[in-house]
TrEMBL record:
Record protein name field: Pentatricopeptide repeat protein
Feature: compositional bias, Polar residues: 59-69, 81-95, 102-115
Family note: Belongs to the CCM1 family.
Function: Regulates mitochondrial small subunit maturation by controlling 15S rRNA 5'-end processing. Localizes to the 5' precursor of the 15S rRNA in a position that is subsequently occupied by mS47 in the mature yeast mtSSU. Uses structure and sequence-specific RNA recognition, binding to a single-stranded region of the precursor and specifically recognizing bases -6 to -1. The exchange of Ccm1 for mS47 is coupled to the irreversible removal of precursor rRNA that is accompanied by conformational changes of the mitoribosomal proteins uS5m and mS26.
Keywords, comma-separated and alphabetical: Repeat
Basic and acidic residues bias (residue ranges): 798-823
Biased composition (Low complexity): 37-51
């Protein structure tokens, strides 16, 4: 029997919602199979709104028109888009896809279990057309509602194509009673809408999206003539004044019928007129026991995320945020089981928290929710972004099992996601020795690496620090015919620069020069420029001429970029004219950073650094298109701190740099750059605080250095190895053995060991034996944690600590022996 009350006209199955008025839909054949796009995560990649049914065909072995319903037998229906995949939502470029819903009087194969979720289509296209012709391509209203009735298990045929034995087949699903019952319960909790009303609303939302995207006038009649009555005006005012109080009370006082009518108009109004109140509206209405239709809520969030995310991501209402409202309104427990709008789900996966995404993935598997390969790829992308390798591989396994056309393991979409996942790969010890963790698992699944994947494997091999492993992978690529591209050369350049192999860099540059395409590649050009800085400007030899070093960098810069920003920074005089033949492209942030760093290292006067910083800071606050992006990271600020470190007069300017960073980052929530985007200002990083601390240590200001340590604690900055090194050096210079011992002990507790840099600092101790005694006393006072012995890492930590103690012991004894003759 149908779940729809007898007093109501039977609902259209495509909408899955009760209706008060008999709205019929006309069947229109689809124009042809169009391949689905790869996993996409923003609304601008959606397709045009389709007013036709979803990608499904509903078959039932026992359906036949009754005599009482003969007048409705040949009535055609126009499908509700409430069940259509959000892939057919709104897209400004691509054409819409025509989907169908049709009935077949075909019994499910006897050898197929009704508990199975998806099955390949065993029938031939010809037999489907014959059955389709007998029923005139449609189901009557009573027939369509019987999909939830008793009898043999019905079967759903989706228009999504799967590959079975090398042939394209329609994806099928035999309905299980538990899935039908859960679908009924979820839909019963939704507001009443006819399919025509849902379609009308979505068309209006689509036109609103298009008008915003193309910056044109709206064409939809509903949007143009949209007006609120007196009751809706009152609701809107309460929404603006007190959404969680007065508006919630007024909304809950409405009947289910009234909520349906009011939500239909108010939702379009807030999206069109006042999107700043859209989250308040969606929050309250989706917390009601009568929720809006999922596909309509998903469309609303797709619009907001596409055009108002930069503003709404800073929205707050009590404890509610944009993310929390989206997670509540699109929560997985309300996802339809049989016909799930995929675009809304992908938006949820993109914006939700780690816990919410894991819960959604688990629920999709438990409930066997209708999910496409594109959506599973989106899960894979999100898990990769979260660093959850095993879950990403599990999502890839689901894509493999679905066998969806255009999303096989050798498809471009799947390989792009595998490339992204491989960036997390690392070498681990296993029963068969050291090996990569992710790559073998991809090979076991049947993924065949292409050049892009091999480039990432090559990069991972060099990142291990084992040069021979990287060279072996390079030889494997050459032996198997993988042609080197820009990514390959960039990986080789990165490795050579990291190892300080200047000859290797020179050799690679000679290989790149004959290829004009590689030579003009911005990434390779930037890396070659960076390599020149590392070998010339980063560490200037005392015998080198600073002017020659600077102009050497300037000559290479002239070949790549426009010099106007350098003149605006007063690095170059206004009358300077570059030599002919260079490019005039806008400089990248990396190129500008390298020139500023070179200039500061070649001009070491504090006054020059102060003047340059004042100009730099002014241009950043003005939103200079080339210079303002430098404030998004701490690199340029750190260079100014290094320039101020060598002179006591640079301590005040150094403090000003950090204060400016703190002030600008605190204003990120309210400031906008000239393009209307939130201004990006980096907070002081652990490296920034460490350099500031070293400024005071190098200039014999230990108390100021301790003050910096307190400020780091206030801003929740974790110490890195460089921070510990500076703190050890500070206490050693002051001959503060007690604090030095505590610092070394704390450093070891954090997992860092005493290295050669620390031993250099300990040479300044007048009495090294006191440090050894102090460390022994601290070891006796410290009680080992009870659970430390049970830790899987205990053996490694003990071995590491023994090595640290031995190194420290040898160093202290050598210092003691050297000090004895002097005493």
């Amino acid at each position: 029997m149908s779940y729809c009350p007898q007093r109501l006209v039977r609902s259209r199955f495509s909408a899955g919602l009760p209706s008060w008025d008999p709205h019929h839909r006309w069947y229109r054949p689809r124009t042809g199979f169009q391949a689905a796009r790869a996993s996409s995560n923003d609304a601008s990649n959606s397709r045009s709104l389709s007013s036709y049914p979803a990608d499904t065909v509903v078959t039932h072995p026992t359906l036949s028109p009754s005599l009482n319903d003969r007048r409705l037998t040949n009535v055609s229906w126009e499908g509700s888009s409430s069940v259509s995949d959000l892939k057919s939502s709104f897209h400004p470029v691509q054409t819409s896809r025509h989907d169908q819903i049709r009935s077949q009087s075909l019994k499910a194969p006897q050898d197929q279990s009704p508990h199975s979720e998806y099955e390949p289509d065993a029938s031939t296209p010809g037999s489907r057309r014959q059955a389709f012709g007998r029923f005139r391509g449609v189901l009557s209203i009573p027939e369509r509602s019987n999909i939830f009735g008793s009898g043999s298990a019905p079967k759903i045929v989706y228009n999504t194509k799967v590959v079975i034995n090398g042939h394209l087949r329609d994806r099928q699903r035999v309905l299980h009673p538990s899935a039908v019952a859960l679908e009924k319960r979820i839909r019963y909790q939704s507001l009443f809408y006819s399919g025509a009303e849902v379609r009308k609303w979505r068309l209006a939302c689509s036109d609103l999206y298009r008008s915003k995207f193309y910056e044109r006038e709206m064409e939809n009649e509903l949007l143009i003539t949209l007006k609120l009555d007196s009751v809706e005006q009152i609701l809107l005012e309460k929404l603006k004044i007190d959404s969680l109080g007065r508006f919630r009370e007024a909304w809950e006082s409405l009947s289910k019928r009234e909520k349906s009518t009011r939500w239909h108009k108010l939702s379009l109004w807030v999206l069109k007129i006042c999107p700043e109140y859209a989250l308040d509206f969606l929050l309250v209405t989706n917390q009601s026991k009568d929720r809006p239709v999922f596909v309509m809520v998903a469309d609303a969030f797709l619009f907001l995320d596409a055009f108002h995310y930069d503003t709404l991501k800073r929205w707050r209402n009590g404890t509610h945020t944009y993310q929390s409202v989206l997670q509540s309104a699109l929560r997985p427990s309300n996802w339809p089981i049989l016909f799930l709008p995929q675009k809304g789900v992908r938006l949820f996966v993109k914006r939700a928290s780690r816990e919410a995404v894991h819960h959604a993935f688990q629920l999709v598997r438990q409930r066997k929710i209708h999910t496409k390969a594109e959506t599973y790829l989106c899960f894979m992308w999100r898990f990769t972004e979260l660093g959850d390798i095993d879950k990403a591989l599990e999502a890839l396994g689901n894509v493999q099992r679905m066998r969806q056309a255009d999303f096989q393991l050798d498809s471009d979409a799947v390989k792009r996601h595998c490339c992204k996942l491989l960036t997390l790969d690392s070498v681990q010890e296993g029963p068969n020795g050291r090996n990569f963790y992710i790559l073998p698992k991809l090979l076991e699944k049947g993924v065949r690496p292409d050049r892009d994947m091999m480039n990432i494997v090559l990069s991972n091999a060099f990142k291990t620090g084992d040069e021979q492993l990287g060279l072996d992978m390079l030889e494997y690529m050459r032996a198997n015919g993988y042609e080197w591209d820009s990514y390959t050369y960039l990986t080789l350049l990165n490795d050579a620069v990291a190892r300080g192999d200047r000859n290797r860099v020179t050799s690679l540059v000679r290989e790149v020069e004959p290829d004009e395409e590689l030579q003009k590649n911005p990434w390779i050009a930037s890396k070659i420029f960076h390599a020149h800085f590392v070998f010339t400007g980063k560490h200037i030899n005392p015998d080198d001429d600073p002017d020659a070093v600077f102009y050497s960098m300037l000559d290479m810069y002239n070949q790549l970029h426009d010099i106007t920003p350098l003149k605006e920074l007063s690095i170059l005089p206004p009358e300077y004219t570059p030599p002919p033949g260079g490019d005039n492209t806008p400089p990248t942030p990396i190129a500008l950073y390298l020139m500023i760093a070179t200039y500061l290292r070649c001009r070491k006067r504090v006054s020059i650094g102060q003047r340059l910083y004042s100009i730099f800071r002014s241009l950043v606050l003005q939103g200079h298109p080339a210079i303002a992006p430098l404030a998004a990271t701490d690199h340029t600020y750190n260079e100014f701190l290094i320039a101020f470190r060598d002179n006591p007069r640079g301590l005040r300017p150094a403090m000003r740099v950090v204060e400016d960073m703190l002030q600008s980052s605190a204003q990120n929530e309210t400031d906008l750059d000239p393009r209307g985007s939130p201004a990006s200002h980096a907070r002081p990083s652990a490296r920034t605080w460490t350099i500031l601390m070293s400024c005071f240590v190098y200039n014999n200001q230990p108390h100021a250095a301790e003050k910096v340590k307190e400020m780091m604690a206030e801003h929740n900055i974790d110490y890195n190895k460089a921070t510990w090194n500076v703190m050890v050096s500070n206490h050693a210079n002051r001959q503060n053995v007690s604090d030095l011992a505590k610092t070394i002990k704390s450093m070891e507790d954090e997992g860092f060991i005493v290295d050669s840099y620390n031993m250099k600092s300990l040479r300044y101790l007048r009495d090294p034996e006191r440090l050894w005694v102090a460390l022994e006393e601290l070891d006796k006072m410290a009680e080992p944690p009870i659970n430390k012995l049970a830790s899987s890492k205990s053996s490694a930590r003990v071995t590491e600590k023994k090595k640290s103690d031995q190194l420290l012991d040898r160093g202290l004894r050598r210092l003691s022996e050297k000090m004895k003759p002097k005493l």
